[in-house]
């Protein structure tokens, strides 16, 4: 869940890109290239991070690519099989449904963005001690264990004794079996995903909002623009770098959705067959069926899709993202 | 949002490599020579937190007899136990001694991950039920020292039986008696079901299949038994409680709320379940339950018997000490400690009294008496794949997505395909 986002989320990126002084700082660092003693310290400083990335991200990615062309024995030992894993994955009868579930889930997850913006805007209006309290409340799901979150939601969603269906019964609605009826599972999971990501998105939008200079609003007010006009003409365009950043992260996270399927739906569930995601197929292959090579092939395909999608998003951003 | 599984797994693999490299260095130094006199520390891998105190007691008793050996009991929750064990075995770092299940013994022994115990001096399997010894024997050699066994009984809620005026189940009950009782006990107004009949194999379906005279797997363990009409009769009996008599919660309801939880909270009057849930039902507040033998089907009585065993990792640097410990785990003294804990029935025959008396309010002797007609839990050389595939298909049948007859054909073809792969 969102927990895993932390290491890969350079939260300062949109802010840095959006503000003038830091960009100038970047230019100055570049000018010092001529003095070896100076820049060697810079590289030494980032060495631990780069070494960590190389050991725990880059090297494993290279290994995964290699292993995707092999089959594994249960207790180790690989055999080169060429493209067989990729062929088996692409002809898996479960793939179309899993791909559709993954895409649908990711699209639903994008709904978290408007909710987060509204929350961040509301919190920005608040003054005093309450801000910290609300911010903590909304951020709690982000730092909660995904497994615990899933268990609590599973209980809320219980078709017979769950709180949600109890509340629905008060208004005369007979609620469905949210986590064991395949018609509802993806939506039920998306609600949990949106709820979990609100806090994290909200922090980013909150920072984005704080970066918008007050004098724009003052000028707009003098020109007679109302609150709504101010929001759409000033806030939204100047928040677009944050929106872009969050939407890229949301798509990456959404396409890798796995833990809610396992923890909230469980393995012996009649709805599971219709609710699997791509990452769940990966889990089944690697952890249940001992087909590590096949799992690596799925991971490589997923990574390729993510790279293309992210590249497309970066291309499209020129059309709608405004850097100040 | 989705966890970064594509990143964490390669990272784990990388970490495993590092761990393997590090431990390779240390074990090379500590190896062979130290076993004879010097201090040795054995790791004992288990997964049940309820049994940890008893295992710890056994370890202490063993340490008293062998002052130079220390036993480190390592608990891994069941959900992660096999994943972790397999990774450790692949990198040569599995625990010296660990728990083994019937479903995995074929794989672990067949792939050379375990030491054959029957080759060790002083090996004696006579105290244990022959059916258990046979499951843990692969290629003529026994790899597992039976630890405990379990059978299935018909648990029932006395309060709900009294309220509905139904007589308690007895050893003479048949399928029809269970059906009749379930109908009398079901009360939609009170939110009470007569029975819970999930698609769980060991607790429910396998027993019904053998009571009907059917088979899960052929005697040579090469082909599926789901083509047999008797096997289907067993499945039909279990499914009818949901679809025909409507005296069991649906598969969806039992997915949302675990049937053992429904039974413990008084929503379900009867539930076939193993002896391992004894403490759960003993500790359930307000539950007044007892247990009776499983009913007789068209082919008579039957219950599945399953049980764990202690095994030695083939690559342990302390093979001699590990054998001393496993021999002790199979001794009368260790089994008495297990029996007194009340958590499981010890595999050592004749010692079940301690276990039976540990929870006097239940007729636990039922589970021991059922040994007379117990059928070994069905396994093959590589049981994992077909167990997973069968469960997925049974989930579809129980969820109403697949008819039993069409499902049986798919069960037969996928299971046969899995068995052919070996």
From TrEMBL, chain A:
<keyword id="KW-1003">Cell membrane</keyword>
<dbReference type="GO" id="GO:0055085">
    <property type="term" value="P:transmembrane transport"/>
</dbReference>
<dbReference type="InterPro" id="IPR035906">
    <property type="entry name" value="MetI-like_sf"/>
</dbReference>
<keyword id="KW-0762">Sugar transport</keyword>
<feature type="transmembrane region" description="Helical">
    <location>
        <begin position="230"/>
        <end position="255"/>
    </location>
</feature>
<comment type="similarity">
    <text>Belongs to the binding-protein-dependent transport system permease family.</text>
</comment>
<keyword id="KW-0472">Membrane</keyword>
<feature type="domain" description="ABC transmembrane type-1">
    <location>
        <begin position="98"/>
        <end position="313"/>
    </location>
</feature>
<protein>
    <submittedName>
        <fullName>Multiple sugar transport system permease protein</fullName>
    </submittedName>
</protein>
<feature type="transmembrane region" description="Helical">
    <location>
        <begin position="186"/>
        <end position="209"/>
    </location>
</feature>
<dbReference type="GO" id="GO:0005886">
    <property type="term" value="C:plasma membrane"/>
</dbReference>
<dbReference type="Pfam" id="PF00528">
    <property type="entry name" value="BPD_transp_1"/>
</dbReference>
<feature type="transmembrane region" description="Helical">
    <location>
        <begin position="292"/>
        <end position="312"/>
    </location>
</feature>
<feature type="transmembrane region" description="Helical">
    <location>
        <begin position="41"/>
        <end position="59"/>
    </location>
</feature>
<feature type="transmembrane region" description="Helical">
    <location>
        <begin position="103"/>
        <end position="124"/>
    </location>
</feature>
<keyword id="KW-0813">Transport</keyword>
<dbReference type="InterPro" id="IPR000515">
    <property type="entry name" value="MetI-like"/>
</dbReference>
<feature type="transmembrane region" description="Helical">
    <location>
        <begin position="136"/>
        <end position="156"/>
    </location>
</feature>
<keyword id="KW-1133">Transmembrane helix</keyword>
<dbReference type="InterPro" id="IPR051393">
    <property type="entry name" value="ABC_transporter_permease"/>
</dbReference>
<keyword id="KW-0812">Transmembrane</keyword>
Automatic annotation (TrEMBL), chain B:
<dbReference type="Pfam" id="PF01547">
    <property type="entry name" value="SBP_bac_1"/>
</dbReference>
<protein>
    <submittedName>
        <fullName>Multiple sugar transport system substrate-binding protein</fullName>
    </submittedName>
</protein>
<keyword id="KW-0762">Sugar transport</keyword>
<comment type="similarity">
    <text>Belongs to the bacterial solute-binding protein 1 family.</text>
</comment>
<dbReference type="GO" id="GO:1901982">
    <property type="term" value="F:maltose binding"/>
</dbReference>
<dbReference type="GO" id="GO:0015768">
    <property type="term" value="P:maltose transport"/>
</dbReference>
<keyword id="KW-0813">Transport</keyword>
<keyword id="KW-0732">Signal</keyword>
<dbReference type="GO" id="GO:0042956">
    <property type="term" value="P:maltodextrin transmembrane transport"/>
</dbReference>
<dbReference type="InterPro" id="IPR006059">
    <property type="entry name" value="SBP"/>
</dbReference>
<dbReference type="GO" id="GO:0055052">
    <property type="term" value="C:ATP-binding cassette (ABC) transporter complex, substrate-binding subunit-containing"/>
</dbReference>
<feature type="signal peptide">
    <location>
        <begin position="1"/>
        <end position="30"/>
    </location>
</feature>
């Amino acid at each position: 869940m969102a927990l895993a986002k932390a290491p890969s989320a350079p939260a300062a990126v949109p802010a840095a890109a959006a503000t003038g002084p830091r960009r100038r700082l970047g230019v100055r660092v570049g000018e010092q290239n001529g003095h070896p003693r100076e820049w060697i310290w810079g590289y030494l400083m980032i060495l631990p991070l780069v070494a960590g990335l190389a050991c725990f991200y880059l090297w494993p990615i290279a290994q995964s690519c290699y292993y995707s062309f092999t089959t594994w024995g249960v207790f180790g030992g690989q055999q080169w099989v060429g493209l067989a894993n990729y062929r088996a994955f692409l002809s898996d009868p479960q793939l179309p449904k899993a791909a559709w579930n993954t895409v649908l889930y990711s699209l639903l997850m994008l709904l978290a963005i408007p909710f987060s913006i509204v929350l961040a805007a509301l919190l920005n209006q608040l003054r005093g001690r309450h801000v910290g309290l609300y911010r903590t409340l909304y951020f709690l799901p982000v730092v909660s264990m995904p497994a615990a979150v899933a268990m609590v939601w599973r209980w809320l969603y219980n078709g017979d004794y769950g709180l949600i269906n109890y509340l629905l019964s008060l208004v005369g609605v007979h609620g469905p079996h949210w986590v064991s009826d395949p018609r509802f599972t993806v939506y039920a999971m998306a609600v949990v995903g949106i709820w979990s990501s609100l806090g994290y998105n909200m922090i980013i939008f909150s920072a984005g909002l704080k970066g918008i200079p007050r004098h724009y609003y003052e000028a707009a007010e003098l020109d007679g623009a109302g609150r709504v006009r101010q929001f759409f003409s000033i806030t939204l365009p100047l928040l677009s770098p944050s929106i872009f950043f969050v939407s890229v992260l949301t798509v990456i996270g959404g396409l890798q959705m796995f833990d809610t399927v396992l923890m909230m739906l469980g393995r012996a569930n009649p709805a599971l067959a219709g609710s699997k995601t791509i990452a769940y197929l990966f889990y089944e292959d690697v952890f249940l069926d001992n087909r590590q090579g096949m799992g690596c092939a799925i991971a490589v395909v997923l990574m390729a899709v993510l790279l293309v999608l992210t590249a497309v998003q970066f291309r499209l951003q020129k059309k709608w993202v405004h850097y100040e | 949002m989705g966890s970064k599984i594509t990143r964490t797994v390669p990272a784990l693999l990388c970490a495993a490599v590092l761990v393997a490299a590090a431990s390779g260095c240390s074990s090379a130094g500590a190896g062979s020579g130290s076993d004879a006199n010097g201090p040795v520390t054995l790791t004992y891998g288990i997964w049940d937190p309820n049994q940890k105190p008893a295992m710890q007691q056994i370890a202490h008793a063993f340490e008293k007899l062998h002052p130079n050996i220390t036993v480190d009991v390592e608990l891994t929750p069941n959900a992660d136990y096999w994943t972790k064990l397999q990774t450790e075995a692949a990198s040569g770092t599995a625990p010296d001694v660990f728990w083994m299940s019937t479903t995995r013994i074929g794989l672990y022994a067949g792939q050379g991950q375990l030491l054959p115990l029957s080759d060790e001096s002083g090996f004696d399997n006579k105290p244990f039920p022959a059916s258990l010894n046979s499951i843990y024997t692969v290629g003529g050699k026994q790899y597992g020292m039976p630890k405990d066994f379990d059978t299935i009984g018909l648990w029932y809620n006395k309060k709900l039986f009294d309220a509905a005026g139904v007589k308690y189940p007895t050893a003479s009950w048949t399928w029809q008696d269970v059906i009749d009782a379930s109908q009398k006990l079901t009360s939609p107004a009170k939110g009470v079901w007569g029975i819970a009949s999930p698609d769980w194999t060991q607790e429910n379906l396998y027993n019904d299949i053998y009571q009907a005279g059917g088979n899960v797997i052929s005697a040579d363990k090469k082909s599926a038994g789901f083509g047999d009409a008797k096997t289907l009769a067993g499945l039909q009996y279990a499914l009818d409680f949901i679809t025909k008599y409507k005296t069991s919660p649906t598969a969806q309801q039992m997915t949302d709320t675990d049937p053992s939880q429904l039974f413990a909270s008084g929503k379900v009057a009867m539930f076939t379940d193993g002896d391992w849930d004894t403490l759960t039902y003993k500790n359930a507040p307000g539950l007044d339950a007892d247990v009776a033998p499983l009913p007789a089907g068209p082919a008579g009585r039957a219950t599945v018997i399953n049980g764990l065993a202690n095994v030695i990792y083939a690559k342990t640097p302390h093979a001699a000490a590990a054998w001393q410990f496993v021999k002790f785990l199979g001794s009368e003294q260790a089994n008495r400690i297990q029996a007194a804990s009340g958590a499981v029935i010890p595999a050592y025959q004749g010692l079940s009294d301690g276990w039976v008396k540990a929870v006097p309010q239940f007729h636990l002797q039922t589970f021991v008496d059922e040994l007379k007609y117990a059928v070994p839990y069905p396994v093959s050389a590589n049981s994992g794949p077909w167990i997973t595939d069968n469960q997925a298909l049974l989930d579809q049948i129980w969820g109403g997505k697949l008819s039993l007859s069409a499902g049986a054909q798919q069960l037969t073809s996928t299971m046969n395909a899995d068995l052919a792969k070996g």
